[in-house]
Every structure is written in C-alpha cells, then in structure tokens.
C-alpha cells in the first residue's frame, strides 16, 4: 500500500472517532484542548516573529506543548508528532524534491529565458497578460521565491522596453506566481494540505486550475492597471534593487536597460551551449500536469481494473508523473543543451539544498496536525462547527487567514489549518476534499505584510516603500485569497 494511503488509513480511525463525537455534549477536556491549541498557535507566532526561531523548531516545540497539555501521555506525545511528520514527508517530501530538480534544470538550461523571449514578442498592450502567462508557466515547477528572482529582471526589461509602469507588468507576474504557489501541486502548501486531508492530487490540480485562471486575471492584469495608477513607479528603483545600481555616471534609462539586459541573460548556466526549444520547454514543464490530469479523468470515466486505467493510474501518480518530467528534463534541459552527465548530477544535488528548510517545515506542520488530532482538538473544533453551523470550507479558510496574518508563512498557515479541520473532512467526497484544500490555500495567501519574507522580496526588488508595497503586493494577495475562495464556494455548490 502507498505510504500516504497507510498514513491516511491510520489517521482515519482518529478522524472518524472525532467526527462521531462532534454531537456529544461539550466537556472540560474540550475547553482544555481549545485553550491549548490557541496557546500553541500563539507560541508558534511568538517563536517565529519575536524570537526569530526557524518555523521547524517553532512548530516542533508547539506540537510537544499542545500534546502534553491536551492530555497525551509523556511516552506517547513524541510518537504522535513523529507519526505526523513521517506521514506527510513520506509522500510530500518526494514531490517537493522532484519539483525542485525540475525547476533547477529549467532555469540553468535557459528554458525559462526561452519561454520569456518567445512570449514577449508582439504588441505592448498584451504584455500584462503575457507576464501572467509567463509566471504561470514558469511557476509550475518553481517555488515562489525562485520564480520571483528569475522573473524580476524580465519584468523590468519589459517595463523598460515598453516605457510602461512597473506595477502594470509586475503585478500580473506576481499574481501568476502566487496563485500557483497557493493552489497548484507540486508546490509545498497544496501538497501538504492534500496529504493531511487525504485529498486526490489530480482532482485538486484540476479544480486548482479552474480556480487559478479567473483569480490570476482579476488579481493580475486587471488589478495591475489600478496598482500602476496608485503606485506609478517606473523601472528605475527596481533596476537598482536587482542589479545593485549605481554611480556609473550614465543616464538612468541607459543604465537600467543595460543592467536589465545583462541580468536577464545570466539566468542560463555557462555550461549550456544552446537553449532548449520553446516547444520542448513547454512539453517538459507541462508533462506532469497533463499526466496527473489524465489520471483524474480516468478516475471518472475509465472502468476500474482495465489495462488503460492501471496504466493511467501509474503514470498519473504525482511521484511517477514528476519523475517522468525530471527524466525528460535531464534530456531536454540537460544533455540536449550541452550539459554532461556529471554536470547534471551536480545540478540535481544543488537543487535539493535550498528546499531542506521547506521540507522540514512541512513535516513539522504534519506533526503539529497529528498532535492536535490525537489530543482531541479536532473533536472540540468539530463541536464548535456543529454548534455555530459554520461550514467546513468556510472554517478552513478563516483559520488559514488568521494563521497567515499571525505568522506570515503561507506554508505554515496551510499545514496548520488543514490539520485543525482534518476531523471535519472525514465524510467528504473527493471533489469536496480537493476544494477544501483550495479553500485553505486561498486563506494562506491573505494580506501578506511585514512578517512575510515575500513582502520584503517584492519591496526590495521593485524599489518600493512599505506603504507602496502594501498598496500593491498586499492588496493583490488579499484579492487572490478572496477571489480564489469565492471560486471555491461556487464549485462547492456546483459539486454539492
């Protein structure tokens, strides 16, 4: 049996027990575990924001605290935490690693540059839409921060060439990256929520794409027009942030254009003697998405036990789909562009180093979730939900919003909120489980502000003030959260 299946089945007994207890009278233990949960979340916030602890340590400490206060015995509390960590990382960690390898090869081969150069051709009026499309394509295999660093020089070069405002093109690119980060596997947040809630990756991906398209349109090109009027900055400040600026004595426009052109060409690794073609770049990037969607379609329309169903189930499994994409990338983004096999091996190793922190945060979030469930917090929250008649989808979004505002981390918000509401998801069907993942993902993007590293990345790269960053980036993130959640509600009603 698959690792995730074993973990979900093990957790299922606890979840079903919690759900069966949701209509029982409120008792003292329920009060205790709710207080412990609130204090535990507050402890995570304090340790991350004030004490500057790494999120992995903060979540681990809070997990043990909540477990002990909730009544889990001393000899079992660490076991509960370890079960949660292992259950999530046994599945999600592999996908994060494969996604990181694919993103690294895409960047170093010049494939990302090829996508950008191809899509930037044409009329200037289409540039905001093209920037959102570029961000969406590049953002599929890349973490938000990596995609942002890669795209900023491209955005500012396009701003310089078109004599446009930075926010007119910057907001669409940021929206494309952020939506992919919050809604679409194989990004860590959605994958973690899928693992915690036991949702289907293919179904979540299919619904995620449906939610993502209108959300990007509204929060990207459309809001970008308004943001450009509210914060009418050009390329100058951002060019200095990207290139280091400075003191050359040349006219600002010339310095800006020269620096951005140089910065853009540096994305390709010197070991690559040529770029992959645009067609092969798209085929490689989109191959795991197509395979996972094919499996989701097979679940609906292909009979169980048929040879076709078995083949699609295998190649459409996220691990297999991403592995196929990585192997294809080692050719299209590797040997075909001039990299030797030893160089490819080195790049694979390099791609894994930056994700260690993310992987362990996701794992610790799974541990925190398991302690909350084993300690009875899920049952108590289920009772509150029954008493207040709050739907599980609304509760998931609200909890993720509150944790996002407190910690600044979308990933922490996603895994924690998913763990808290997991007992309420026991009887949901595959479609509603996938939509619950997306609701939590939408909540995790709400109003990024000064406690979020992404806030400061955007501020510095675009050369904005704190106030300007709030007017643009923070409002854009809030739009993504609200519009995405409204789309989830529509789909929830439609599939109900």
From TrEMBL:
Q: Specify where it is mainly localized.
A: membrane
Domain of life of the organism encoding this protein: Bacteria
The similarity comment for this entry is: Belongs to the GntP permease family.
Q: Do you know which InterPro entries this protein is assigned to?
A: Glcn_transporter
Its protein name is Gluconate:H+ symporter
The membrane-topology field of this record reads: Multi-pass membrane protein
Q: Where in the cell is it found?
A: Cell membrane
* Native source species: Microbacterium horticulturae
Q: Give the transmembrane ranges.
A: 31-50, 56-74, 86-107, 127-159, 166-184, 204-223, 278-298, 318-339, 351-368, 380-403, 410-426, 432-458, 470-494
């Amino acid at each position: 049996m698959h690792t995730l299946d074993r973990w979900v089945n093990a957790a299922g007994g606890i979840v079903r027990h919690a759900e069966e207890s949701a209509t029982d009278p409120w008792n003292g233990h329920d009060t205790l575990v709710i207080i412990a949960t609130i204090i535990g979340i507050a402890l995570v916030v304090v340790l991350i924001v004030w004490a500057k602890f790494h999120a992995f340590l903060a979540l681990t400490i809070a997990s043990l605290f909540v477990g002990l206060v909730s009544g889990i015995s001393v000899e079992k509390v660490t076991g509960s935490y370890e079960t949660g960590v292992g259950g999530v990382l046994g599945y999600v960690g592999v996908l994060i690693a494969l996604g990181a390898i694919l993103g690294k090869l895409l960047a170093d081969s010049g494939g990302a540059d090829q996508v950008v150069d191809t899509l930037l051709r044409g009329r200037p009026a289409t540039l905001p839409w093209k920037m959102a499309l570029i961000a969406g394509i590049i953002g599929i295999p890349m973490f938000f921060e990596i995609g942002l660093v890669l795209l900023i020089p491209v955005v500012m070069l396009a701003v310089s060439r078109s004599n446009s405002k930075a926010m007119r093109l910057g907001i669409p690119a940021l929206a494309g990256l952020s939506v992919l980060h919050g809604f679409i596997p194989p990004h860590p947040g959605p994958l973690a929520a899928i693992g915690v809630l036991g949702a289907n990756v293919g179904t979540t991906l299919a619904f995620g794409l449906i939610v993502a398209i209108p959300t990007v349109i509204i929060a990207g090109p459309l809001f970008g027009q308004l943001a450009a009027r509210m914060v009418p900055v050009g390329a100058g400040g951002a060019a200095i942030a990207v290139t280091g600026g400075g003191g050359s004595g040349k006219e600002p426009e010339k310095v800006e254009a020269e620096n951005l052109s140089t910065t853009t060409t540096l994305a390709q690794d010197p070991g690559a003697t040529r770029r992959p073609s645009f067609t092969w770049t798209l085929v490689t990037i989109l191959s795991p998405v197509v395979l996972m969607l094919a499996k989701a379609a097979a679940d609906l329309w292909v009979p169980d036990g048929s040879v076709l169903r078995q083949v699609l189930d295998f190649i459409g499994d996220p691990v297999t789909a991403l592995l196929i994409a990585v192997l294809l990338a080692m050719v299209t983004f590797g040997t075909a562009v001039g990299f030797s096999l030893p160089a490819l091996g080195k790049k694979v190793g390099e791609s894994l180093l930056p994700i260690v922190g993310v992987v362990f945060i996701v794992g610790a979030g799974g541990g925190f979730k398991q302690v909350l469930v084993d300690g009875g917090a899920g049952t108590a929250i289920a009772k509150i939900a029954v008493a207040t008649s709050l739907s599980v989808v609304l509760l998931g979004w609200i909890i993720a919003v509150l944790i996002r505002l407190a910690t600044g981390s979308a990933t922490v918000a996603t895994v924690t909120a998913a763990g808290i509401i997991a007992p309420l998801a026991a009887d949901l069907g595959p479609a509603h489980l996938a939509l619950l993942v997306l609701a939590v993902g939408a909540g995790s993007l709400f109003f990024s502000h000064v406690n979020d590293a992404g806030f400061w990345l955007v501020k510095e790269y675009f050369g904005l003030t704190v106030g300007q960053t709030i007017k643009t980036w923070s409002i854009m993130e809030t739009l993504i959260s609200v519009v995405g959640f409204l789309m989830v509600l529509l789909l929830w009603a439609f599939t109900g």
